[in-house]
Amino acid sequence: MTAPNPAAILLFANSQHLPALEEEESSIRDALDPLVDRGILSEVYVINNASIDAAIASFRVSRLRSCPLIVHIGGHAADGGLMFRSHAGIPELAHGQSLAGYIGAQNRVELVFLNGCTTESMVEGLRNSGVKAVIATSSLIEDKTAAEFARHFYAELSDRPLREAFRLAAHATQIRWRETTGSPWPWILSVDPAHEGWTPAHTSQVPDCAKLEDLVELARTSKLERPVRRRRVLRELQRLTISQHTPRIVLLRGPDGSGRRSLIDDLAHHLAEQSRPQPVSLLRAKPSLATSEVADICARLDKLKGRVLIHLSHANVQTDDAVASLIASPQVRVLLSTNDEIFAGLGESLKTRASNLNMPVASNEELTMVLERVASRLGIDVTQDALAEIVRLVPTYAPRSGDFGAVVRLLEDASAYAEFPSTGYRPGASDPAIGRVTEAIIRRIVAVRSGTPIERIK
């Protein structure tokens, strides 16, 4: 079993009296979020206006219990301790040595960054209790300088060893700091010599992309950059797929919001326009998808040669079971996914045509099965009457009467609408679930046909 990736816990204490802490938090998140996107950090867990109880509870969060930790504490320091905020909203002093003992006793803390005034007194306690590296201060610090140094440090740590990241962050901050103060540099790093070369990537299970058959990496881009990036990536996908005549696996990997799904859609339509079967299985995965899981999925998908797989979204436990059931079914033609929940469309009615990616709507029995799973995902209790009404409506109202994928996408939005729009249709009043689900379908269809944004339909 692979070890969990490290996580970062950010505790900001008494922030109502330190407005700069908001800037510090934003700066640190900007530096650490790319590490989450790359699968190096599992999570950035933040508590603002932290109380002592909240700080202690952060180490007990179940999903973080086994993670190696980076702990950042920002706020005032005084009398050898750190100021937190009591439940009554007033400052409360946490005894420095006791807090150091509690943090060190976690036995999984790689780094503690105490970004408050004169926190050096806590270093020895943290190091003696097992923390491998501590950043603290030897004197008073300015709030804005503290935020700037933290931002530079975590940005450097994303790609550099600990000692080097600390040194470069100090140089970057001192470019401006040296002009405004003649005081000695206040930040110090106390680190085990064997830990000086540590980076978060050393303790994370980063996928070994070299073992994959093909890999296309995506990054988050601005709106202005997106068209250029999409054309470039689509050309690369076309090169990997269209030039090949044997089934292959391409992993399209990137963070949420990087456009993985839409790029796969674009490529699928392009292949359809070429009037040729798809000899490629396209996997759209989050950055944290482990290589061993990819290899296992690829081996299973290899048994599905000649069949079209449009989307495969990484879904932890569900992935293995879903792929296994697909292999066992001689009828499978299309794998659809939504919200990391996998839906298999079974039966000859879902068979695609090379010249047209639209799929005939499934039989009532098949559609009912998918509707039940979608409704369960949305947390809606849909009765048999509601299902019957939806099954009746979908073939009638689908924007392209054979687009099974559109049915699933329509249902994804069902939970967003609780009131009936004035579309001239009133679903069965006997069951509110009919209204919540079917009206969502109607709203989307009206928008598609009229070109009107959904939110403008009243």
UniProtKB/TrEMBL annotation:
User: Domain CHAT, which positions?
Assistant: 6-173
Which SUPFAM superfamilies would you find in this protein's record? P-loop containing nucleoside triphosphate hydrolases
What is the protein's name according to its record? CHAT domain-containing protein
Which species? Answer: Enhygromyxa salina
